[in-house]
Amino acid sequence: MSDQPVLLQVDGPIARIVFNRPKVLNALSVAAADAFLAACKSVAADSGNRVVVIAGEGRAFMAGGDISAFEGPAEEVRMRVPTIMEPLHEGLEILAGLPQPVIASLQGAVAGAGMSIALSTDLAIAADNAIFTLAYSKLGTSPDGSSSWTLPRLVGLRKAMEIALLSDVYDAHEALRLGLVNRVVPAADLASETDMLARRLAEGPTFAFGQTKRLLRGSLDNSLHDQLAAEARGFGACIGTADFAEGVGAFLGKRQPTFKGK
């Protein structure tokens, strides 16, 4: 196993960003945050990938940030925290803006920054041993990693307040019920189920997926009038793609479409 804190693995149309500090449950360090940003930039620059998977090596997805970085005089901590937070935030913004769907593959501890990252993705699949907690309030701090933006959009403001303020622990099935993840699978099947979902998406119309991501992510900030206009622009942009012609032709020809992501 590589000693790099984050691995970027490219398997044809699937790019996998894997947190790789299993001995410390993939706690996010400065080096890991920098490597995460570098991986996100590489994914964004590669036009060949059509889906992105975020995963963690070992028995946890991520147990949070490297708490040792938060110890010491306040002024010193204030100087250290941005070295982790800023590359994390930049990487998450890159992933949110990608046309490709981004999937979180989650097992074991999904805590703190790990839960924030998981919430930021487009789809999430969890092993039945996954445990979720936002955890920030237990450290006496407020959230980062975009969870204050994503959480109320996923579960509503009232439930988001409960999850963030109380930092309770939720098992995988409760996370599914709350809408924090899309599906729960046996831990032994997580890798294969994630791969199956990723390949299904990789065979889809990537440009249309990108338009859909943009519409859904921006919808809560738009009026109905503005959202309808955005939908019209998105549909119009899709009309010019080869995938749109293929989809229409396949429907009329009563056959399965073969999308190329173009």
UniProtKB/TrEMBL annotation:
MF terms (GO), sorted A to Z: catalytic activity
Name of one Pfam family that matches: ECH_1
Superkingdom: Bacteria
Gene3D superfamilies registered for this protein in UniProt: 2-enoyl-CoA Hydratase, Chain A, domain 1 (3.90.226.10), Lyase 2-enoyl-coa Hydratase, Chain A, domain 2 (1.10.12.10)
InterPro entries linked: ClpP/crotonase-like_dom_sf, Enoyl-CoA_hyd/isom_CS, Enoyl-CoA_hydra/iso, Enoyl-CoA_hydra_C
Family: Belongs to the enoyl-CoA hydratase/isomerase family.
Classification via PANTHER family: EG:BACN32G11.4 PROTEIN, ENOYL-COA HYDRATASE
Name assigned to this protein: Enoyl-CoA hydratase
Phylogenetic classification of the source organism: Bacteria, Pseudomonadati, Pseudomonadota, Alphaproteobacteria, Hyphomicrobiales
